Amino acid sequence: MAELSRRRLLSAGAVVLGGTGLAWGAREVTLDQAPQAAGPPVPTVSEVEPFYGTHQAGIATAPQAHSTFVALDLRPEVDRAALIRLLKVWTEDAARLTEGRAALADTEPDLATEPTRLTVTVGFGPGVFRLANAEHLRPAWLRPLPPFSVDRLEDRWSGGDLLLQVGAEDPVTVAHALRVLLKGSAGVGSVRWTQRGFRRARGTQAPGTTMRNLFGQVDGTVNPSPGTADFADLVWDTGSGQAWMAGGTSVVIRRTHLDLDEWDKVDRPGREQSVGRRLSDGAPLTGDSEHDEPDFAAVGASGFPVIPEFSHIARARSADPRQRIHRRGYNYDEAPAGGQISDSGLIFVCYQADVDAQFVPIQQRLSELDMLNQWTTPIGSAVFAIPPGCAKGGYIGQQLFGS
Q: Which residues form a coiled coil (predicted)?
């Protein structure tokens, strides 16, 4: 009798749903199992990165598996008031999304319930200061980088007035957050370029493990540790140049094409000599583990340096301790053009208090003579000022606009 009742209920349900065109599949329901109302899942603390604070999130934050960088151009008719309104909307929407709550005008609120360590970081290009009649408040380093001999820059990956950097462990979370934020910018800015990057997924490697680029190399070994005095000194602006920037930083984004098709032809010893590190564990050629200090004076049986003087790590190193940066790069992989096997590379992202004093000298040395230049080509370049964070009730950039 119980079996007959179940069959009748399933049959009736199928008829009703089928008549309305909504029957995607039968689901058994018994009278002694009433359906439970399902509410949105509550994000765990580990999935939520704080939005409000002295500094913007997404800089000292442990890198997530996915990050998308979007540069926007401000529309000619936009004024200071419209830009402030946009920044207030972005701040409110980002704060809600990072907590796992739908934005106020979210048309897909069900996609907002899994923040997966979502961070939203906003940056200002030179155009913001022109629009705000605040050229006198623009940091001296906020301008296009000087030309480097290795550059083959394309406009479609360079420049911009505003930056959105959105990162999370899940690509759906990133895509949804970006859609919400870009809808909020309609009428104020238009997308200039979009760069989507990835790292190893969460759980596939031990926490703190250095990422690998698509050459198979560890990428970013020599990085200051967030939370230390060294990190604060190298990354956070003290406001000595512009008071409104205290607690902010700068970001350089360089899209670098990696010629994997030619790299395939280089044997393993040649690859390691070019970098100055072992591919297996990232250790310098004179060391036993990744974070051992390289010995650039060591020579081999042939009398030549163990670490070639034109290797990547030798050229990147400086005797000046201020010439260091915080790297937080991502890989990219696009559809190849005809005849190619791959179109891949690195979205090189670094933060520093002063671009001119820290990043530029390093890049000049690498541009002059770095063995890796045979297989790497910068094709995009942009510099942005990253304003400080804000408190609840404020908005990103408020220190600049003062209202």
A: none
Distance CA 163, CA 33 (A): 51
For 152, the token pair is 């083959």
Angle at 274 between CA 211 and CA 199, to 5 degrees: 15
Tokens of 299: 């020579």
Beta strand 189-198 with 66-74 is antiparallel
Instruction: Give the C-alpha separation, 291 to 282, whole Å.
Output: 8
pLDDT band at 30 (very low <50, low <70, confident <90, very high): very low
Distance of CA 283 to the CA centre of its chain: 26
Catalytic residue flag (residue 219): yes
The rounded distance, in Å, linking the Cα atoms of 174 and 195 is 12
Map residue 272 onto helix, strand or coil.
Answer: helix
The rounded distance, in Å, linking the Cα atoms of 99 and 168 is: 12
Cβ neighbours around 53 below 10 Å, total? 14
Q: Left, alpha or beta for 125 (phi > 0: left; psi -120 to 50: alpha)? A: beta
44-90 per-position pLDDT tens digit: 656 999 999 999 999 999 999 999 999 999 999 999 999 999 999 99
Question: Of residues 151, 161, 219, 370, which has the active-site annotation?
Answer: 219
CA distances, 266 to each of 91, 238, 263 (Å):
48, 45, 5
**DSSP-derived secondary structure letter, 109:** G
Helix (H, G, I), strand (E, B) or coil at 198: strand
The end-to-end CA distance of the chain, in Å, is 73
Cβ atoms < 10 Å from Cβ of 210 = 16
What the block records as the tokens of 280 is 């297996």
Whole-prediction pTM = 0.88
Residue of 256, 246, 194, 230 whose CA lies nearest to 386: 246
Q: Which tokens hold the place of 398?
A: 């408020």
